[in-house]
Design goal:
Number of strands: 5
Shape: globular
Radius of gyration: 13 Å
Helix content: 25-40%
Strand order of the largest sheet: 3-4-5
Strand content: 15-25%
Distance between the termini: 31 Å
Order of helices and strands: EEEEEHH
Length: 84
């Protein structure tokens, strides 16, 4: 899905998103993992850039979510393979 969002941590322009299930567009409150810095953010159409950092409750939720944990581990492995 084509987007035009900006990571609130590294300011990378994010131009696509992939749903974990189905082909649904992101909704407010959905989580996003930045492909550049690996930080979690939350879709929020009210915010400039369309993404915001997770609040404490959301971050705790991410730390308990098996899919989120697996996604972050995959990202870390990919990044480790790309280091010189």
């Amino acid at each position: 899905m084509d987007l035009d969002h900006t990571c609130p941590f590294c300011n990378r322009r994010l131009d696509a998103a992939t749903a974990i299930e189905g082909d649904l567009p992101p909704r407010n409150g959905d989580f996003s993992l930045c492909i550049k810095c690996g930080e979690w953010s939350i879709f929020d159409a009210r915010r400039e850039g369309g993404l915001r950092p997770p609040n404490h409750r959301e971050y705790v939720e991410l730390l308990k979510d098996d899919v989120a944990i697996t996604m972050r581990e995959i990202w870390l492995n990919v990044m480790a393979d790309e280091e010189p």
